[in-house]
Design brief:
The protein is an alpha/beta fold. The chain contains 16 helices and 15 strands. The protein has three domains: about 70 residues, Arc Repressor Mutant, subunit A (Orthogonal Bundle), CATH 1.10.10; about 140 residues, Aspartate Aminotransferase, domain 1 (Alpha-Beta Complex), CATH 3.90.1150.10; about 240 residues, Type I PLP-dependent aspartate aminotransferase-like (Major domain) (Aspartate Aminotransferase, domain 2), CATH 3.40.640. Helix 1 crosses helix 3. The longest helix has 26 residues. It is globular, with a radius of gyration of 23 Å. It binds pyridoxal-5'-phosphate (PLP). The site of pyridoxal-5'-phosphate has 13 residues, from helix 8.
Length: about 475
């Protein structure tokens, strides 16, 4: 822990020297040995700090020569502001755009900046496939039978162990395996809400949650969410005081689409505030394992003393979305959630539960995470840099510390549905901002890009989007 903080401190000091002009573009940085002497830290700490700065595109290593300040230091556009405050319950308008977006995933010719799916190159497909085959051979009857809910016991116990890292003391008996995090959240909403009830959610929020709330005939209070600090808790407190709220939905780590997280103190505050109000929290932690440094953040559930938090997650972002392995720890709603799961579909698929259980136990999950976290950090830094270069003036972009999505705010006049239609002609997809809200027209000048599909090969697509956005700006000026 100390070592991690130290390398970050060194990296921040160097970044500050670059920002302040002490080291200018093209300057050679002190060698690793020199820097270790000057900063009075170990050589290894300097190596990690330099590598961290390389990931942020701030410095570059030149073979046989040393480290240099990048020719064009990252000048990212500013971050978007917190979304507008409005805590009136809203009806929900559905969007055909979501259907189009999800259909695009199947189009191999399109650049997949739309749905938040992992880079196929970073999915351990072969290893998972081997493990799946061996697991089915070794557990033939289990693999073809129902893994009757709550689901595969070994998988549940592996998940319980893993979540200890996030501050949760869970036992396997407190978990239910679901078909992805989507089913977990849907199950939680069904358990807690009746048609016409009001739900408090972050804003902007993952578009499928908006669709779920609509399907269940629920009303919504959108709580503004800051790209840096997550859900605005004073507004939530105010909403709790003035409305009858059935539950709150929050993505506490690297949320979708903003990538923002609540600090430990805010998670604790959220858990306490909702417990005091008697309002349960559906906490989605699907990106919790995708922190860009090696620290696994906590979840609000770690401070849940009353079983008031229904924690949901899956392996869709870290292993394979197609395996459909997710889970829920429903706290004091366990019996009811279990009943609903059993009645709805008895169980989730058995073979993939067996495979994920084995992957967690013996497949090197922690190592796999180290590799993909770093890869996604680099991809997002490079993509944000490209946005800074190619998008029109006035564009803002987030700087997430985890996950793989970027949220972009264009000048106010631009409607990203127009941009979407134009981008389709170039076979580029992205997620238009308005699908991330239940309020018609909100976030119409925003878009979410899936940074998992960033590569130098796809740079042209970001450039092309930027040009099209600039053209739209001109047309509106
Ligand atoms: C926050 C969040 N929750 C849930 C999901 C859906 O996950 P799954 O594929 O496990 O159902 C996603 C997918 O993008 C997501 O971003």
């Amino acid at each position: 822990m100390e070592k991690t903080l130290l390398y970050r401190e060194v990296a921040e000091r160097i970044a500050a020297l670059v920002a302040g002009g002490t080291f200018r573009i093209g300057d050679r940085l002190p060698s690793i040995r020199e820097m270790s002497r000057q900063a009075q830290v170990s050589i290894n700490t300097v190596k990690v700090a330099y590598s961290h700065l390389e990931d942020r595109c701030l410095i570059e290593a030149r073979p046989q020569s040393g480290y240099y300040v990048c020719p064009r230091p990252l000048e990212l556009p500013r971050e978007p502001k917190i979304s507008q405050k409005s805590i009136e319950p809203q009806g929900i308008s559905s969007s055909k755009l979501v259907g189009r977006l999800l259909k695009d995933i199947l189009d191999g010719e399109k650049i997949q900046f739309g749905a938040a799916i992992p880079d196929p190159e970073l999915v351990p497909a072969r290893k998972l496939g081997r493990i799946l085959a061996v697991s089915c051979r070794n557990h033939a009857s289990e693999s073809i039978g129902y893994a009757t809910s709550p689901g595969n016991a070994r998988l549940r116990s592996q998940i319980a162990r893993w979540m200890f890292k996030a501050g949760c003391t869970l036992s396997a008996d407190e978990l239910i395996i679901t078909s992805g995090a989507s089913e977990a959240v849907f199950l939680a909403l069904q358990t807690l809400c009746r048609p016409g009830d009001t739900v408090a959610i972050g804003s902007p929020i993952y578009f499928n949650f908006v669709q779920m709330l609509q399907l269940l005939n629920l009303r919504v209070i959108e709580i503004p969410t800051s790209p840096t600090e997550g859900m605005h808790l004073p507004t939530l407190r105010q909403a709790l005081g003035t409305n009858k709220i059935a539950c709150c939905v929050a993505i506490s780590n690297f949320d979708n689409p903003l990538g923002s997280s609540l600090t430990d103190a805010r998670k604790q505050e959220l858990a306490a505030m909702l417990a005091a109000a008697g309002v349960p929290l559906i906490e989605d932690d699907i990106n919790g394992d995708l922190s860009h440094d090696d620290e696994r953040p906590s979840v609000a559930k770690a401070w849940d003393r009353e079983g008031n938090i229904l924690l949901c997650s899956s392996f869709s972002k870290t292993l394979a979305p197609g395996y459909r392995v997710g889970w829920i720890a429903p706290g004091r709603y366990l019996e009811e959630a279990l009943h609903r799961k059993l009645v709805t579909n008895i169980a989730s698929a058995s073979p993939t539960q067996l495979a994920v259980a084995e992957f967690l136990a013996n497949g090197g999950y922690a190592h796999h995470l180290r590799v993909i976290r770093k890869a996604y950090a680099i991809k997002l830094a490079r993509m944000a840099d490209a946005i800074g270069r190619y998008f029109p003036q006035g564009t803002r972009v987030t700087r997430p510390a985890g996950g793989f999505t970027l949220w972009i705010e264009l000048p106010a006049d631009v409607d990203t549905v127009d941009l979407y239609t134009r981008a389709e002609t170039k076979k580029i997809t992205f997620a238009p901002g308005r699908i991330f809200s239940s309020t018609r027209g909100r976030f119409r000048n925003c878009l979410r890009l899936n940074g998992a599909f960033w590569s130098e090969k796809n740079r042209w697509a970001v450039e092309s989007l930027g040009r099209m956005a600039a053209k739209l700006c001109e047309e509106h000026s």
